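Please review the protein record below. Tell me whether the encoded fold seems credible here:
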Amino acid sequence: MIVKASVAQVGAVPFDVPASVAKAEEWMARAGADGCQIVVFPEAFVAGYPKGVRLRLALAMIIL
């Protein structure tokens, strides 16, 4: 069996879970139109927080 997969290198909508889910649905529809049967998203995509937000906070605290 051959499965066509896709990797979605997209960012979540910061602090907005419903908008992040809608964005994921849009990207899944695009991949499906190209014949993909599975789409992989970044870790914690649906959580809605921006990638690296904790790192920036930690760096800001160190600089202070």
Remarks:
- Confidence is low (pLDDT under 50) at residues 57-61.
